[in-house]
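Collaboration report, partner site 2.

Our partner group contributed sequences for two proteins of shared interest, and the home lab folded both. The records are reproduced in the order in which they were received, starting with the first partner submission.
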Amino acid sequence: MKFTFSVLAALVAAAFCAQEASMAKDGTYTATTLGRNGDVTVQVKIANNKIEDVKVLSWSETHPVADLPKAKVPADIVKNQSTNVNNVSGATLTTFAIKAAVQDCLKQAGLNPKDFSKMVPQPQKVTDNIEEKTDVIVVGAGGAGLSAAVAAAQRGLNVIVLEKAHFAGGNTSVSGGCFNAADPEGQKPINMTDGQRESIEKLLAEKPQNKLQEDLITQVKQQWADYKKSGSKSLFDTPELHALQSWKAGDYKANLELVYRLTKEAPEIQETLAKMGIIWQKKPTQFVGALWPRSHRASNYKSGVGYIDTYLDLIKAENLPVAFMMSTPAESLITKDDKVIGVKAKGPDGKTYTILASKGVILASGGFGANVKMRNEYDELWDKKLDEKVKTTNMPAITGDGINMALKVGAGVKDMGYIQLLPTTDPATGSTNHKIVESTNIYVNKLGNRFVNEQGRRDVLAKAALAQPDHIFYIIGTEQTLLKDKEGRGPYGILISDLLKQKKAFKADTLEELAKKVGMDPANLKRTVEKWNEFCKTQKGDEFGRMSCEDGNKLPGGPYYASLMTPSVHHTMGGLTIDKDTRVLNKAGKPIPGLFAAGEITGGIHGTNRVGCNAVPDALIYGTIAGREVGK
């Protein structure tokens, strides 16, 4: 066979290039892409034209939501030699980020990413029906579900926990983690202001609407008299004051007996959590919508995930008889002679599970904040405008399944029309994890003007925010008041540098520079901050009626930060009707045998407006009660 010179040259060049490409392919490469929260850096090892290893080196993705994709997606890519592997439900953006980084590494190695994009077979579905038996079934593995499971297991009961998502945590794991509890010892460093004193006097002057409110007012009057007689200047607080404030904040619509049990047992649960490993910060603060400086947070955990990890660690350490069935949503309750005796559920592989519980079923599956249809069907506060355009802080799995299951067996519901919007959320995602300063810091609109008392009720704050241009505003803070750790991460574990890069937060040395970066009038912003600082100095005469300015709210000087905010659906105050022992009541107000409920799935505890930082104690206290009461 004869070849022309040009053909021979081409063959030699091709062979040379192939040799060069082969040499270029082997090695270790890294690439960084943007995930949900920030940069995701991935390392890929290439050998013999194959993906030999994939590792996630660093990221700010949310634990525990992103734990599964961090392990599963790299393993699936190596196993299938393809980046076209299945996404992890509930962590799609994280999955995409890992895939994109691997594709970048393939390009760096001289490989064509298209050669590593073959379709991966879908998991084979089966139709088996499996029956299981246990003492207690808990539906939902969030804060309420885990506390219920632990309390039941510590009584020696065998517990099966059904969880719709692929991880334990629910909304608790992505919450801010604040925990309201009266704590006079911890509150000693907080000075009482004239505005706070006046608010107590007004509360005690109210005409009682029932016997319990009358009793609580009588108790607080005596506590208040003793406090004033003592000459103390520290913040006054008691569980009874907490109850009265919370009931009023919900427009007196809640069941005061349930409210008082929450506030009375909160200090006890706080102490129990400390024994379990939670290290509380020494001084409580006042979170957005909390109404009083009694909001506690852990110093050894980021956000609400600390409660989840603490309960899971306890289950493991004490070898408690708790079995988890993840990615296994409950579909219906099983009844016999009007008693709830079990749950039907669907496994991730298609298997149907019939699980029978000899002692009872505890529903702890959350509210319906992520169910657009339900929230618009029930809404009584927002003119039926909570459509898909309105983001939510909720996990995607929080769609009211437990409520609908219970309705089918005759459960009653209460306060379903009361849905809370949280004013301080990310306009792009609805999440709260871009927070970098206290959410009770000064709120400033696009014009550079303050527009509301930042310590007010969440519904008031949300309505005020929605009345601002483009429904957005900024929370202003400084370097001195920044909530960051030694690694430069905010309270949710996200690098502040990533938030600045994504323009979810802004930084400047001066107020004038900050105003220009976010598009405000510099003179307006400067004038607004000057008035704010004067109020923080005197703690008197705030134009919006604010009662106090805590240390974390002050603006001592630059550098300055601004976080972009808008309201999103946060909490559904309505749900199943329960009694003080968490028994689910039917429409006639009678207990449904074998059925209990705790957490956001219940109604009657918050009324029209949930006080900020009452949700975690609600979940953990009533979850614990459910675990103690089930089967008695």
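Second partner submission, folded after the first:
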Amino acid sequence: MGEPRKSVANHGVRCFSKIKMFMVALTGAYLSKSLSGVYMNSMLTQIERQFNIPTSLVGFISGSFEIGNLLLIIFVSYFGTKLHRPTVIGVGCVVMGLGCFLISLPHFLMGRYQYEKTTSLASNLSSNSFLCSGNRTETLMPTPDPAECEKEIKSSMWIYVMIGNLIRGIGETPIMPLGISYIEDFAKSENSPLYIGILETGKIVGPLLGLFLASFCASIYVDTGSVNTDDLTITPTDTRWVGAWWVGFLICAGVNILTSIPFFFFPKTLPKNGLEDNMDVTKSDKEEKYQEKAKKEKRGITKDFLPFMKSLTCNPIYVLFILISVLQLNAFIVSFTFMTKYLEQQYGKSTAEVVFLTGVYSLPPICIGYLTGGLIMKKFKITVKRAAYIAFCLSLTEYLLSFSNFMWTCDDFPVAGLTTSYEGMKQPLYMENNVLDDCNTRCNCLTKTWDPVCGDNGLAYMSACLAGCEKSVGTGINTVFQNCSCIGSSGNSSAVLGLCKKGPDCTIKLQYFLIISVFGCFIYSLAAIPGYMILLRCTKSEEKSLGVGLHAFCIRVFAGIPAPIYFGALIDRTCLYWGSQKCGKPGACRIYDIHNFRRIYLGLQAVLRGSSYLPAFFIVLLVRKLQVPGEADSPEPELAEMKLTEKERECMVVNRSPEVENNRELKTKL
């Protein structure tokens, strides 16, 4: 009676012992981590407005994810191979879910969002004190008590978001290095490019879902359900609008925890792909010897760490590849983190619309490119030499194509007193004390409040009072201001809430920008798989996990952490008008000098990526001179180790432990 139960149990374990089942689970983990990562980046603008903080601080919040990842990446990459890798990955998914929940927590701890405004929400006011009035002697809003105000500012709730993002980074640490090393150890080497292509596809489907989720949440007001949205005086295109960013983080938390469940059922080791039918045979002598060797490795768990590190630093292709990755990832992070803000300011679209268009135009071609690259590598059995040529040529082609984005630019929003004069003439930017004019000096207006209106003449004004408006009709977003002395059009010289929309030619330029991004994303992703295979094939099997981890470590230190911070500070330098916190301190930026913004956003990417092609050229030259035995001479499709130069041999001989040498011999026999 006990024998059938045992066979059923073994059958259940064996189902989870397939490399393809692990691929499905790992793809789900890639999907969930990229879902929450892309959603976080898409909501940075909403977080900036919610907490009324500058872009440089938002960049620091974004970089906190890399800081959390950095804390454990090297140790997880090396020591994780000695532990139960699937279980470690599952724990990481749970930690990511907890981090996402912590990010959403400030919404439940802080009060309702109060945006900067001069207009009133009520419809039955006896006097419109926010309009032009010559007898007003007091400010519109009472001055808060300084001590109470400072106390409120010091309790910055954005710290919860930063800590939650840091915890999310800690949880993501084991997924990539341990997952890839697990596949490399137990899958056929000829299937490895296809498997990595499938994983990269999971990293694209996740962002696609994340962008759609972000677009949906950004279109819903942050306090929906607790406030009457009919009384709002802002729309999703307003720079003060904050969407329901917290909803998506709760969804991401649940998805991350669900994807962790399968990993707790996988075994520590699998038979090499293709040997599943002989599982009982291989588990006799060779499996037992392998397990004994693994126990010996645990006893000397740190003995080979320094020799491996020295070997990697003596590998010129590996070092140059890290340099290329750092430069390219600096440009990519700059582009991805602040793309939403750039498209909003450049083309005058809402966050929800920009995020949706980005997902539709960018992610499908990236997904197709990753799959195509993996299939080509498998179908034609591309060697490392050819992969280096393909990656270099495709990446350079996409880089040259990206320069066309400099042409698709729009003018600044026409705001009287900021970007244009009150007569509608363009003026030098960053001029101070020019928000007042002869048409509104009698109005005694507040000059530190951003509540723009759009006049019949096509000009926007920072408030209805500064437009010289004396009368209002309607409530909420439908309010119309009349008798505006600064608006020189015929009729009643009226204005409506919000900035004036940009012309139809700007929408056409946005379409050109997105079309170029379709071709650029496809070419870039097509080159990604051949480029990544260079990293995997230029390191020996016992160093692979540590090599992937060290590569990720350098990306975090030199790209993931500093890039959003220094670029956020550069963006702040292009701000034309800052919003106001309580106590009069500057908050989030309301409008930017779009021409300087474009030069920094596109120009910095061009400089960073352009400088990466010099080390890439040297990699192509080095790969030409190397002989790869598994590709050139050996008919077997096993993963080949590159022949070492004399200098590299010296690096490897130093302090080489006997356990590693015996392990290599055992792997060769297996």
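Feedback sent to the partner group on the second submission included the following. The first strand starts at residue 453 and ends at 455. The two ends are 37 Å apart (CA to CA).
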